[in-house]
Design brief:
The protein is α+β, with helices and mostly antiparallel strands. It has 2 helices and 3 strands; from the N terminus they run βαββα.
Length: about 90
């Protein structure tokens, strides 16, 4: 499955794309961000643990798109664990 999450924020310079997935990395040019830089780190850990992949695309001043490739087998396994598989 492909999950696409888009925002219309300031975008992320391509020089920093790898860094945004690291713990405690907050890229904020204007000093308006109150986060601690763990959101994408946690998302990456969850996705990779399930056997998927996460990446992003961004254009300066035009927002960011986070792309998640989620393996179908993990959804099937989770449904089976819950007794939901057909």
């Amino acid at each position: 499955y492909q999950i696409v999450i888009k925002d219309n924020g300031p975008g992320i310079d391509s020089r920093f794309w790898d860094r945004v997935f690291e713990p405690f990395e907050v890229l904020d040019a204007g000093g308006r961000h109150n986060g601690v830089g763990m959101g994408l780190t946690i998302a990456r850990k969850i996705v990779q643990t399930a056997g998927g992949a996460i990446s992003l695309e961004s254009e300066d001043a035009k927002g960011t798109t986070v792309l998640i490739q989620w393996p179908a087998h993990s959804l099937t396994a989770a449904a089976a664990d819950e007794g939901l598989a057909a």
